[in-house]
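Record Glycoside hydrolase/deacetylase, 421 aa.
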Amino acid sequence: MQSHTHTHTLILILILLVLQTLTTTTSQSLPSPDPTTPLIIDTFTHLTHNALGFWHGPLENLRTTHPPNTNSITLHPTDPDQIYHTQLSPATCFNLRPYRRTHYLHILFTGSTSFTISLTQNNPHCNASHAPFPETWDSVPATPYAHGPHIYIPLWHFAIDHARALSVAFNGWYSRDPVTLFRVELVSAGAVPIGFPVPQRAENGRVVLRCSRPGAFAFGIDDGQPGLAQQVVRILEEEGVLVTFFVVGRGLRDPETNFSGVYGEMVARGHQVALHSDTHRKLEGLGSIAEIDREIVENIKSFRDILGIETRYFRPPYGTIGARTRQRLANYIKDPQIINWSVDIEDWLWADTKTPEKQREAFIRGVMRGGNLAVMHFLSPTTVSYFREMIQFVKSRNATIMRIDQCLEDPDSPPLKISVP
Ligand SMILES: [Zn+2]
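=>
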C-alpha cells in the first residue's frame, strides 16, 4: 500500500507561515448585520488580502492567474486538496451568528462548478498556533447552488459553530477546468433574486480533527505492513491501550496480506476498526458519483462479509475530503464520522529517511500544540520503533489513550475500562 502525502498538515503549516508574515489590521469587532448592506468579504483587488483586510490566497500549489483589467482571480486546480482561502478574521474568530439565519453567502464567478465551498471553524482558543487549526469545516458542492454566474448558499447550510467562523474556502476539485472568482460576500435574503433556485440542505458527515472528551487522546492508525502487525499488537497489549485502525476493503480481501486475520484479531482484542475506502484513492477527485459510491459500498461490504462489523467511522485516504464524499457517506451511513487528525507523526515524510527521529519530533510538536487525535501507519519499522515511546509520552502528560469513538463520547462506544491497580 502506498504511503501518504498528508497534505492537510501542510495546509495548516502554510497558513501559519503566511499569517506570521502578514501585518493586518487587528480589529476583531464586526459591523452589526445590516439587512440592506452586503458584507463584502472579497473583491480580489489585492494579491495578499481581501476586502476585510485579511489574508486570502492559494495553498497546496494551487496555481492562480489574474485576468487583465478585472478584479478577479482564476484558479487552475490539478488536485482535490488544493485550496483557496479568504479569511474572515486575522486567523482568530469571526462571529457569524448574527448572520446565520438571515444571510446568504454570495459568490460571483465563471467557469467550472466541479468543486466544494467550505466555511471553516476555528478552534475554541481562536488561535492559529493551537491544533487543530482550523478545527473543522462544513462544505457544500458548488453545482446545485450555482445558477449562471451566481452562487447563493444560506449560511445555516454550513453546520459549524458560526461564532467561530474563520474563512470561506474553495477546494475539492474534480475537474481541471478553471474557475474565476469575482466577489465573495454576505447578503441578506432579500438580496437573493426572486426565483433563484436554492436547493435544500443535504445531509452529510461531520469532519473531526480532535477528541472532545476532556483528557482523552486517540491514535488513528491507517494502512500497515502485515509483517509489523504482531509488533504493534504486542506494544498495545503491554501498554494496555485501545486504538482505532482504518482499513481499506481491498487489503482485507487480499489473502496474501492476511489482513483479515490481523484486523479480526484487533476487533477481538477490543480495538476499533473503521472504514478507509476500498482502494485508497482521493475520493473527492473521482470524476463520478458512481466511483465514490463504489469506494464506500465495497469497503462497507468487506467489513460485513470478512470482519462481521459495521461502523459509521471513516478516514478519507490522504485526508482528502469534499462535499460530494461527505454527502455520499451520509447516503450509506447514518451520521457518518469523518476522522482526520490534529497530531501527525509525519511517518509519510520521515519514516524511510536518514532522520527517522523527526517522526518523534513531529508527534511531540503536535501534542504540545494541543492536538489529541493522531494519524500514523505501521508501514515502516522505524515508525513502530517509536510507537511505545509516543504512547508513554502521552501517558506522562496525564492523558488517557482510547479508541476514537470513545474519545468522541459516542454513546455506542464500549465503556472505558477503569484499571484497578
Ligand atoms: Zn491511508
